[in-house]
């Protein structure tokens, strides 16, 4: 019985690889050849590097400095304008922005927002009077031009032009704008100025309506007299 279990099945059999040199194949060099070194390229094959000249970078810095200087100057001007506006508002000075007529603004005119409601009707009447004066003086230029063509002489045409050039801005400056500012600021001085020059305006309108023969026989002013003369000559 003991002979059957003399050998241990878990024992490892010792084998000497050098005992039979012909049975073990010779070792071969199995290492792979090393890769060739390649230059590092960060453009990923999309072209060569671009050299930026130093002159262009200096020009950019110079332009940047110029823009910063201009920006600083504009900021200073803006602050100066704002300071003047604040000083004017504290002093009670109203900065008038030209807004009339809308297609070519030459004067400031805003009755609806600047004139009190109970005075707006009177201001609109005064404005209509001013527009009527402009229309009448323009019609006077047309009528006197027709008379000049008929042989009345060029002097009356020059007088009609003077009436129009001086009458329209004169009426606005002397009586309409003082009335506008008087209604807006309730200034007694402006009211006095308005009444004085509006009386002169009424006198000129009466003179133009009658057109007496005292200045170039009244032919430089049309209206009633000139229409009557045309009626007699036709």
Automatic annotation (TrEMBL):
GO cellular component terms attached to this protein's record: plasma membrane; transport vesicle membrane
Start and end residues of each stretch annotated as Disordered: 1-36
Chief location category: membrane
Compositionally skewed regions (Polar residues) per UniProt: 17-31
GO BP: protein transport
Annotated function: Probably involved in membrane trafficking.
The protein, known as: Secretory carrier-associated membrane protein
Species whose genome carries this gene: Glycine max (Soybean)
Classification of source organism: Eukaryota, Viridiplantae, Streptophyta, Embryophyta, Tracheophyta
Gene this chain is encoded by: LOC100815455
